[in-house]
Amino acid sequence: MSEKMISVENISKHYRLGVINRKTFGDELHYFLKKLFHRKLDDFVTIGDEGRLGAKGLFKALDNVSFTVEKGDVIGLIGTNGSGKSTLLKVLTRITEPTTGRAILNGRVGSLLEVGTGFHPDLTGRENIYLSGAVLGMHKHEIESKFDEIVEFSGIKDFLDTPVRRYSSGMYVRLGFAVAAHLDPEILLIDEVLAVGDAEFQKKCLAKMDDIAKCGRTIIFVSHNMTAVRELCNKCVWLKDGKVFAQGPSAKIIDEYLRATTLGSGAFPIVAPADPLQVDMVRHYFDNDDLVIENDISTRATIPELEIQNIIKTASGEIVAKANLHSTNFIVTQLNGAVTVVARFPGIKKLLNNGRYYVDLNVNNPHIRVMLTRSKVLEILVDDKPALNGQDSNIVNFGLLNIRPTFSKK
Known about the structure:
Elements: E1 4-16, H1 25-36, E2 58-70, E3 74-78, H2 85-92, E4 100-105, E5 109-112, H3 125-135, H4 140-154, H5 169-182, E6 187-190, H6 199-214, E7 218-222, H7 226-232, E8 235-240, E9 243-249, H8 250-262, E10 277-287, E11 290-299, E12 303-314, E13 319-322, H9 325-328, E14 331-335, E15 338-345, E16 355-365, E17 369-382, E18 406-409
Parallel strand pairs: 3-7, 3-8, 5-6, 6-7
Antiparallel strand pairs: 1-2, 1-4, 8-9, 10-11, 11-15, 12-13, 12-14, 12-16, 15-18, 16-17
């Protein structure tokens, strides 16, 4: 039977907008008594600068969130900005307490929630390694056994005896991640701090987290990098407006999230009231191994010249193929009314891996400006090929395909 490492049970976290937290001993005592006798904490109005709540109301950063994490799971916590991801990690690390509900964590917790978490700015990098280890409950000899690995991974050997207040944000996060990852926590909580590091360091971090997961450790990883989440995490929890909107296997949840947050409807309004151009519909079909994309465009005035561009991308945003405006030199001249522009990508289906792909559309006037641009106007599903090496083939980064698309008017 699997061992539960984290149990999140009906956690809610509410804030009163424009109000500062408890400031006096009387406020704290009032709050403690209400909690002790199970009174609703939402009824307690904290003291603000003007001593009143005013017209501002309650903000629910988390709203009845529940899920469990088993030993060895690597959970991706995804959602748009403001969905409650960072608040949830702060509750799990006891930085803040929930308004209602509880979280049970079975094991030593290492966390990296923001740049420099747990570091004292006046202490050196060397001293902060020992300080962080002590906070995690490590003995001195345990820290010393990992010390050289931490320094080597962080890449700040030359600045080890410099106070960390003088570190750049990149140096901060490199040392912080190195400490959190090498001191063997049973549970590792990581927020979107890896975005501070450069590409090489991010690659090292992802490889290290993969090694930690293979050792049976448990990880909760918050990121907007869907490629990293897809490759690292076996499960995902999708937060929306402070609630668990969906949870399940990473590939399934990420695809649903990308479709819900970025996919267009297929019919679009004009760019602005002054612009006469409108894209009415974009559709596609496969002709044997050729991909055909039809773009229905209409105008209310004469436009001397238009250039059309379709770009095919993976679900994580990597460009697979595109129609280059300058090489194809396709121009619709003297457009007034409606036209269907057809883009054909010959033989592309044989080169695509299984997975979901999306199409961007750009419409330009070559002599004036970009007239219209739309992201993810189409969703293309390829699911009739065997997996590669027993894995989902849609995570493979195959780069830009060498395809010469053609355009025509229908």
